[in-house]
Amino acid sequence: MLKKLLIQNYAIIRELDITFSDGMVIITGETGAGKSILMGALGLALGDRADAAAMRSKDSKTVIEAVFEHKAGTGLDAILEENELEKEEEIILRREIQVNGKSRSFVNDTPVSLSILAKIAEKLVDLHQQFDTLALGSQAFQQDLLDIRSGASALMSDYSRVFGEYRTTARKIATIKESLQKAEQEREYKLFLLKELDELNWRTGEGKEIEEELNMLTHADQVRTGIAKIGLGLSEGEQPMLSALRSMVAQLQGLQSYHNAITPLAERMNAVHVELKDIAGDLQSLFEKISVDDKKMDAFNDRISTAQRLAKKHGLSDLNELVEKRSILEEELSVFEKSSHALEGLEKDLDRFQKMAEKLAGDLRKSRQAEIPQLEENTQLLLKRVGMPNAALKIALKPVELSASGIDLVEFLFDANKSGQFESLQKVASGGELSRLMLVLKSLVADSMEMPTLIFDEIDSGISGEAAKQVGMLMEELSANHQLIAITHQPQIAAKAEQHLFVYKKEENGQINTGIRMLSQEERVQAIAQMLAGENPSEAVMASAREMMKKG
Fold first, then answer.
1. Are residues 488 and 551 in the same domain?
2. In which band, very low, low, confident or very high, does the pLDDT at 95 lie, cut at 50, 70 and 90?
3. Alpha-carbon distance 214 to 287, whole Å?
4. Residue 310: inside a domain, yes or no?
């Protein structure tokens, strides 16, 4: 509920500090005293656009501060958490207009954007001014009202959750499809690159091995010639080394019996002979294996050339990086495949969510259809009470594709004069009619709907007598569980107040200022009597005023 409103330097208000009670609060006063200015100031605190022209004095800033009682567990908590604002027992909305015309917004002394201020204010105040058709004309408001009356709020909550999953899944599918479409050409190119690398099948270290093979093949003739000459020196020729060494070993062995030191020398020389003989055999084997193979050398050159070309193509500085590049391409293509598989799974989820949403939407339609006749009838009865006997409300369900509202679009249509022609509210209802219709509809859902402080600016436009009395009674009923603040000119409405605030003009230092004060019980009687009969009411009128103020 709204507890206090502080206004400084706004229009003809120098400074006001207003305290509000709960229940029904009525604001009355002299014409031009500033009642509507109060609403304008409150509107600024609630996020309306600022106008520097509304500043009373250009020498100091304008400050509007509204203090609200905050009950935990309401829809406001989520907004506060989302914007990292503390959840205090009081919520203070403050608006400042600097002397340069710039505006600043605060929530509990924390600077916020104007949009966040307005979003929070929506949860605190329902400000319904004459000719303000936004809320009543809102499809969301109309749908909420019908669902609350039909007891389908929980069903709508389930539907919203499932439809949210459906919409989120649809967005994911669209994103993946878009990325897959964009990646298709790139995928084909990457497949081509991977095929090239697969065909090459390069191994880490292979470049060094090929260089060694090419080096050997290039010098094969030179190596064979050298091996042949060494082999000739060891085993053949006029004085082969192995034959000479074998003869020397035999000579030493013949001398062993004459000196003990010769035996180990003979054994060592024999070991050298055996080793050289093995070397000669290995050289012969190597000679036979080495050959000049131009085809093999061409193949190696082609392979190293292909590897170098691919490395340059991929911007690689080392041939060994081809192995890693191949792995990277495989991983990138596997991501594409994973996205394709994910798309299949999401499409199955989408189908499942769609069927669930369609089932819930069908249940919503049945619930709404069942409630519509009763809501239309109750609305018409209350409209008669508030002085609109010829008015009627018709609620249409227009079939639509699966949407946030279900498979129906709820639309309230209005006929003010039994014309039989029902049109949208904005087209056919006057400001006063809309205000009374809003009061009627809100009174029908007051016990079921979480509503903030309700503020009505001149809801009594165009009515008097019994109609005004009935409006007052409806407002009184509505205020039993909700704070309701109304600016009125009707004594029948003012008589129902828990708190009566009187706005007046006063002259101070040659300037006109707006003042406001809470009326005592006797002052209220006087004020209501004056609303009934003018400046100097008779005792009979005073008695009538007292009668009107009696509860029950």
1. no
2. very high
3. 17
4. yes
**Sign of the Cα pseudo-torsion (135, 140, 146, 147, in order):** negative
Long-range residue pairs from 19-24, CB within 8 A, at least 24 positions apart, any chain: 19/518, 20/483, 20/485, 20/499, 21/498, 21/499, 22/483, 22/498, 23/479, 23/480, 23/483, 23/484, 23/498, 23/499, 24/475, 24/476, 24/479, 24/484, 24/486, 24/496, 24/497, 24/498, 24/499
- Give φ, ψ of 204 to 5 degrees: -65, 130
| pLDDT, average across residues 396-400 | 93
Token pair listed for 82: 């989302």
Q: In what order do the strands lie in the sheet with 62-69?
A: 13-19, 2-10, 62-69, 90-97, 103-107, 110-112
Specify the CATH number for the domain of residue 112: 3.40.50.300
Domain final residue, candidates 319, 346, 371: 319
Q: Per the structure block, which two tokens stand in for 304?
A: 């190293």
The answer to whether residue 13 sits within a structural domain is yes
Which residues make beta-bridge pairs with 473? none
Asked if residue 227 and residue 314 are part of one domain, the reply reads yes
User: Do 492 and 551 belong to one domain?
Assistant: no
pLDDT of the residue at 541: 93
Q: Which of 48-52, 259-263, 515-519 has the lowest mean pLDDT?
A: 48-52
Provide the whole-model pTM. Answer: 0.62
* 451-479 pLDDT tens trace: 678 888 777 777 778 888 888 888 888 88
Q: What distance in Å separates the CA atoms of residue 54 and residue 66, rounded to the nearest whole number?
A: 18
13-19 and 511-518 strand pairing: unpaired
**What is the extent of the structural domain holding 549?**
522-552
**7 - beta bridge partners?**
16, 64
At 95, list the tokens: 């608006």
> Is 226 in the same domain as 315?
yes
Task: Please state, as a whole number, how many other Cβ atoms lie within 10 Å of the Cβ of residue 224.
Answer: 17
Whether 442 is in a domain gets the answer no
Q: How far apart are CA 422 and CA 419, in angstroms?
A: 8
- Strands 484-487 and 24-29, by their bridges, are parallel
